[in-house]
Amino acid sequence: MLKINSLVLSRVTSADNDTIEELIILNYNESNNTSKTSKNPKGSIGFNGASYVSLTWPNPSYRDASKYKCEARGVSTSFNKISAAAYASVETDEPDIRSLVDELLHLRKETYETSNSLKEVKQKYASLNEVLQKSVNKLNAEKQLSKNSFFISSNVFQGKRYYMSRKQASNDINKAQATCAFYGGYLVEIDTTDEYTFVVNFIKSVSANDSTFSCVYNGLMDPENDGIWTHVFTKKDSKFLPWGKGEPQNTADYNCMCLEKSYNWRYNDLPCYYADALRYLCEIPEDEQTVSN
User: Fold this and answer.
1) What is the mean pLDDT of the chain?
2) DSSP structure string for 156-206
3) How far apart are the C-alpha atoms of 253 and 250, rounded to whole Å?
4) What is the pLDDT of residues 64-107, one digit of tens each?
5) Conformation bin of residue 176: beta by default, left when phi > 0, alpha when psi is -120 to 50
6) pLDDT digits over 197-215, tens only?
7) 150-285 in CATH: which number?
8) How far apart are the C-alpha atoms of 269 and 220, rounded to whole Å?
9) Residue 20, exposed/middle/buried by CB under 10 A (0-12, 13-18, 19+)?
10) Domains of the chain by residue range
C-alpha cells in the first residue's frame, strides 16, 4: 500500500463478522476525523510511517468486551483502491461469587475503619469544643469581675441597666464610649421623661454614698457647636434636652454634655475631656451579663 487515506475502527456485532458498528473514522486530513463513540479515541496517519488508531474506555462495561476490526483504506503502488483489515478481541473475566464476597468484605472493612476515624474526629472535636467553652466561660467570668470593679449597676429599666463608672482621675468621651462598647453597651441615650427620671434617681442613689463626683457624661455631642446635639452611638439627634438654668453656654470647645449635680442633675455642656470629678454612664441591654453593686 502506497498511501493510507483512512483508518476505521469498528465493533463486530455478529458471529459471522458481517455485522459491524463503526466507532471511529480517522482520515488523513485530521480536520475530517469523525468519532461515533463517547470513548477516548486517538490515532495518527503517517504518509511513509506508522499509522494507528486506539480506543480507551475510562469506565469499561461488559458490552465493551467484543471483537473489533481495524481497517486501513488507501491506494496501492499501481494507484488502485485497496484495503486491509485486522481483528482483535477484547475479553473480560466474569467475576465469581467468591471474588464478589471478598470485595464486599473489603468494602465493609474500609467502611468500618472510616466510621471509626470519624468517631475519633468527633471525639477530638468535642474535647476541643469543651476546652474552648471552658476558656470562654472563664473569660466571661473575668469580664464580669472587671465590670463589677469598673461600674456601679442600676436596677432594670425597660430591658436595660445603667452602669456608672467608679472614681477615676479623668474622663475622655471616646474612652468612655469604647469602654461601654466593650461591655456590650454604649453611652446612655436618654429619650423620654420616664427614662430621665429613672437615671437621675439612680445617680442620686450613688451620689448619696459618694460625694466625689459632680457631673456624669451622657452620650450626647455637638461637634459642630451648632446647637444640634447627637447621640454618639445611634447618631440620632436628640429632642429631649432638659438643660440646667443658663445652659447651654455654647462655648467653642463645649461639645459634650453631662448631668450636673449643681443643676439637680439637669444638662450642662462642657469639654469632651475634663480632668475633674466626672463619671460616665453606660446603657447596656439586659441580655448582656449583669452585675450587682
Assistant:
1) 85
2) -BTTEEEEEE---S-EEHHHHHHHHHHTT-EE----SHHHHHHHHHHHHHH
3) 8
4) 788 888 888 888 878 888 888 888 888 776 667 777 788 888 88
5) alpha
6) 999 999 999 999 998 899 9
7) 3.10.100.10
8) 9
9) middle
10) 3-89, 95-134, 150-285
